[in-house]
Write a structure and sequence with these properties.
The chain is an alpha+beta fold. The chain is built from two helices and four strands, in the order βαβββα.
Length: about 100
C-alpha cells in the first residue's frame, strides 16, 4: 500500500508523519487489497480548540472509503479517522467473503 500525506496550512514534523504512516499501515492488516492511502492534515483558522482536521481516503478496487474527523490534535483526529474507517473495511471484507 502506498501512503501519501499532505499537510495544508502548516508543516508537519517528522514525528507526526511517522505516527500517521504507522497508523495507516496497520489498516492493511484488515484489508490487504488497499492500493493507496491518501491522507490530508489540515489546520483550520477557527476560534475553537478543535481546529485540526484529518482526512483519509483509501483507494480499493471497485470501491473507495473516505473519512474526515476534527479534533484538538492531529494525532487524535487521525485516530478518530482510522476508527471510522475500520468498520467500513470490515463490512466490505465480509461482503467479499459472502458473510
Amino acid at each position: 500500500m502506498d501512503i501519501s500525506i499532505q499537510s495544508l496550512g502548516f508543516d508537519a514534523d517528522k514525528k507526526l508523519v511517522e505516527f500517521v504512516k504507522s497508523k495507516a499501515a496497520k489498516l492493511s492488516k484488515i484489508s490487504d487489497d488497499i492500493l493507496m492511502a491518501e491522507i490530508t492534515l489540515r489546520l483550520e483558522n477557527t476560534q475553537t480548540d478543535e481546529n485540526k482536521i484529518a482526512e483519509l481516503k483509501l483507494d480499493i478496487p471497485k470501491n473507495n472509503i473516505f473519512a474526515k474527523k476534527q479534533a484538538k490534535s492531529f494525532e487524535e483526529a487521525f485516530d478518530n479517522v482510522v476508527n471510522a474507517v475500520k468498520p467500513q473495511l470490515k463490512k466490505r471484507k465480509g461482503k467479499i467473503r459472502g458473510i
